[in-house]
Structures are given as structure tokens and as C-alpha cells.
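Sequence only, no structure available. Ideas?
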Amino acid sequence: MRVRIVAMGRLRQGPELTLINDYLDRFAKTGRSLSLGPAEVIEVDDRKGGGKSTEGAALIKAIGNDDYVIALDERGKIKSSPEFAKDLADIRDQGHQTLSFVIGGADGLDQTVLNRAHTKLSFGMMVWPHMLVRVMMSEQLYRAASILSGGPYHRV
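Reply:
I predicted one. C-alpha cells follow.
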């Protein structure tokens, strides 16, 4: 199952991009035998500055029609890493070809994106900068693959 992180905005060179690339590379290596990955980041830019609705339309356009969609939203479900890993395996086992995680801009996701999502996921009650959410999402993908493969990365 292909995994996509569809995110609003462009990430420039820096420590966040280095971390994302490292975790997604680890995910690709660990997930390959599990039929997970590779993962790619799709960056969506709203140069017109039309606000959440314009961002939402651009994000919807970047999501495949058949993608299983998980929206990253502060009001979403909070899960443990093992629960998240189980969810990934379940989505894969249901036969979905592509799983897209959608990350909005500074103002969050438009309702059209939330309506398109099969589920909503939160990284806690705190609000995180959307660029850091990409790093956290990448790390959790690698952690999930490690959990599913029985690797030592995740400790209880």
C-alpha cells in the first residue's frame, strides 16, 4: 500500500526536511516486507492566498479518488502508536492501494477535506505547527512499521 503525506505549503531545506527524509527512508526499508510504502510527500501550494476554502480545494485535488484518507486534525482521535500501527495494517488488509494523510496549513483543514476523510487523527490536544506535524507523521509511520515487523525501535 502506497502512503502519501499530502500537506499544505512547501518545506525548505532544514532540520525538519532532514528528519522527514530519514524517517521516510526507514519506513520504506522496514515497510517493504509488510506491503507498506514507500511513502511520499505531496506539497500543495496556495499562492493565491484564498484561505481555508482555497487550500481545501487544492488538497482535495491532490488526493486520489480511491485513496483512503486520514485527516490530521486537533479534534481527531488520539491513538497510541500500537493502535496506529494496527490501523495501518487493517487499512492495508482491506485492500486499499493508497493511504493519504492530509495536513492543512496554519488555519487547519477546510470542512470539505474533513468531510472527504475516512477518519481524523490527532497528535494530542495541543496545536502543533503544520511543518512539525509532517515530521511527527513520518516518525509514526516508521514506528508503526517497526511495531508491525517486531523490530526493537518501539519500546513499551
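The chain has one domain: 2-149.
Hope that gets you unstuck.
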